TrEMBL record, chain A:
Listed name of the protein: histidine kinase
Organism: Thalassotalea marina
Histidine kinase domain sequence ranges: 247-477
EC annotation from Swiss-Prot or TrEMBL: 2.7.13.3
Keyword check for Transcription: no
SUPFAM superfamilies in UniProt: ATPase domain of HSP90 chaperone/DNA topoisomerase II/histidine kinase, Homodimeric domain of signal transducing histidine kinase
Coiled coil location: 2-36
MF-aspect GO terms: phosphorelay sensor kinase activity
Main enzyme class: transferase
Reaction it catalyzes: ATP + protein L-histidine = ADP + protein N-phospho-L-histidine
């Protein structure tokens, strides 16, 4: 190469370098100008981008929460939440589990693109391999262990795991099996906000449920308290009446004894007077005196009526004594079906034409401590009362059932029923709805007294024109 | 594609294979631009792809390899154009800042520039996954850039793709793992 040519090349190379530098300077100027323009619009562009992302985020969260606040069960909202989160990922499948006291209780699986949740079973070893989140209410990215990859239902590599604590010892876990977790920070933030929102929703739902449960418990407690109070007042009243009855019976009993004894003597005297009056020497004189004759005729009838009345008074006093007696003498283990069947047999003649008695024993030989004779009296009384409540006839049913260490005996009729004010007084002595000479009003009082002496609790439910049910709870031996 | 990339490619070809190779590529491609690329301007993506394809044919190398090499080479040019990194910045810190810092720098020089979107995941301390989303599908070029960055940060890494659009996958996921000695 000639020296002139080499000089020419060197000159051209220098010229090329100058051109290159000139171009670079020009490019730098343009870039500087663009950068200046960018800085001017930077805040605007940044705000726009931020607003755009937030809008999308808000749309998704609003959609999610709108449907979550609908009236759905906890399971439904969990499935709904998991399904929608799953749809944010391409090719994702999802697993939901309930962990109670550390044990997996329920597993549901939703495959990619499938709308339904399927219950699945995993072996103990497989359950051990289930990913677990270390913190509550926070999405955590985890890799599958080698053995977990063998699980038939799992695809993909990373998992997103979240655990929500529903209440103490009760957790719901959501496992998303995804192909990757390369997403923007905004996307990941949205996921976490959705999780927080969901945690708030289920927390609120649980609070509502607990409030409702507590309210129901409170209502039940108030009801029990009112019932107990009513029973206490009633028991107190019956105890007072028992004391009063015992006093009255005692006071009547002594003069009644004199009266009965004297009437017996008087009867003897009358017999002697009658014998004397029929004596030959006296008889003409008596026949002539009409008044004496009338007295002698009427005297035996009057005496008989007095003796009869005395017996009635004696029966009432005996009833009062039965009502006021508190002892539990002669109680022994017995099968309640015996006194019931005996009472049915006793009342058979009175009930057989218009009434049917149905027995339904379900106590299977369970024994109570009782006096057979007294209990027979109780059930006889109930049966007679039931028949009186159904003058046109009907069914009386007696059923038994063992409930939590007690024997429940129910006696139901389909009779005229009672009003509330009658119901409140049926166990009081001398209280009766029958006509004056048809009852003493002591039957149910004595029944109540006997049952109380057997440590039984009696409840009555009655509906006017529909019937009455007596429910007796006796402790089992 | 920004002219700066074409300029970088020109520099890469000239340095590695000589000025005549570059001229041959221009002659064979017969583009109207005729090799005149302003760094701040934009040019058809296909021009670069064609130029690289022609280089592969001329030098008997595979396209992914050529793109990876060019990316590795180009990182140095690119790195000099952005603000200096903090002294304690690691390779992973840098990679995480690409979308928010470097691409913003590109936008500064031209607000209309199209930059790929990168989404990150860190399964553990030694691994970072990048989902590369770009209509240009230059994931191998991105791999080269990452390798260049690793060289600059003096941090040996293994770079692989767990899924790739060129293999029919939905996404390109680039896995960067620190080598064992790290």
């Amino acid at each position: 190469m000639s020296a002139e040519l080499e000089q020419q090349i060197a000159l051209l190379s220098k010229a090329l370098e100058r051109e290159k530098k000139a171009r670079q300077q020009l490019e730098h100027k343009i870039e500087a100008f663009n950068a200046e323009q960018f800085e001017i619009n930077k805040d605007l562009l940044s705000s726009y981008e931020h607003a755009r992302v937030r809008e999308v985020q808000l749309q998704f969260l609003t959609f999610l929460s709108k449907n979550n606040i609908d009236d759905k069960s906890l399971n439904e909202i969990t499935h709904y939440f998991a399904s929608n989160i799953k749809e944010l990922f391409s090719q994702a499948s999802c697993l939901i589990y309930k962990r109670i006291n550390g044990q997996i209780q329920e597993l549901k699986y939703q495959a990619h693109g499938m709308p339904d949740w399927q219950a699945i079973q995993l072996s103990d070893d497989e359950l051990q391999e289930l990913p677990r989140a270390k913190e509550l209410n926070k999405w955590q990215r985890q890799e599958f262990t080698a053995s977990a990859k063998q699980l038939a239902h799992y695809r993909g590599e990373p998992t997103l795991v979240i655990n929500f604590s529903i209440k103490e010892r009760y957790q719901v876990g959501i496992v998303l099996v995804i192909e990757h977790y390369c997403y923007s920070d905004d996307f990941k933030d949205t996921l976490q906000i959705a999780a927080n929102q969901f945690a708030t929703i289920i927390s609120k739902r649980l609070t509502d449920a607990e409030l409702s449960l507590n309210y129901q418990k409170l209502k039940s407690t108030v009801k029990t308290l009112r019932s107990t109070q009513k029973q206490l007042v009633h028991a107190e009243k019956m105890a007072s009446l028992g004391t009063l009855s015992a006093g009255v019976a005692h006071e009547i009993n002594n003069p009644l004894s004199y009266l009965a004894s004297n009437l017996e003597t008087l009867n003897t005297y009358v017999d002697e007077i009658e014998t004397f009056a029929t004596h030959q020497g006296v008889a003409p004189f008596v026949q002539q005196n009409s008044k004496i004759s009338y007295v002698l005729d009427d005297l035996p009838d009057l005496l008989f009526a007095c003796v009869d009345a005395t017996k009635r008074i004696s029966n009432i006093v005996s009833g009062l004594n039965s009502f006021s007696r508190k002892n539990d003498e002669n109680l022994s283990p017995l099968d309640i079906s015996y006194p019931i069947e005996a009472a049915v047999a006793i009342t058979h003649n009175e009930l057989k034409y218009k009434h049917q008695v149905q027995l339904d024993f379900n106590h299977q030989g369970a024994l109570v401590s009782g006096n057979k004779g007294q209990l027979q009296q109780v059930f006889t009384n109930f049966l007679i009362n039931a028949a009186h409540a159904m003058p046109e006839g009907g069914n009386v049913s007696i059923s038994t059932l063992v409930i939590e260490g007690n024997l429940q005996i129910k006696i139901s009729d389909q009779g005229i029923g009672m009003e509330e004010k009658v119901l409140a007084r049926i166990f009081e002595p001398f209280f009766t709805t029958k006509a004056e000479n048809e009852g003493t009003g002591l039957g149910l009082s004595i029944t109540y007294a006997i049952l109380t002496a057997h440590n039984a609790v009696v409840e009555v439910v009655s509906t006017k024109n529909k019937g009455t049910t007596f429910s007796i709870m006796m402790p089992l031996t | 594609m920004k002219g700066a990339v074409f300029n970088g490619f020109e520099q890469f070809v000239t340095e590695r294979f000589g000025l005549s190779q570059w001229q041959q590529l221009l002659d064979k491609s017969n583009f109207t631009t005729a090799g005149i690329y302003l760094a701040s301007d934009f040019y058809d993506d296909n021009e670069l792809v064609t130029l690289i394809t022609l280089l592969c044919q001329a030098q008997h190398i595979e396209l992914p390899e050529a793109l990876r090499d060019f990316g590795y080479y180009f990182f140095d040019i690119l790195y000099r154009k952005i603000p200096p990194a903090p002294a304690d910045q690691t390779l992973f810190d840098f990679l995480r800042s690409v979308d928010k810092v470097i691409h913003v720098q590109v936008k500064k020089t031209d607000p209309q520039a199209y930059t790929p979107a990168l989404f990150y995941d860190s399964p553990d301390d030694k691994t970072i996954l990048l989902r590369y989303v770009s209509q240009r599908k230059l994931c191998f070029f991105a791999e080269g850039l990452i390798l260049g960055a690793a060289q600059t940060f003096n941090t040996p890494v293994d770079v692989t793709q767990t899924s790739c659009q060129h293999q029919g996958d939905k996404d390109c996921i680039i896995k960067v793992e620190l080598c064992q000695q790290n």
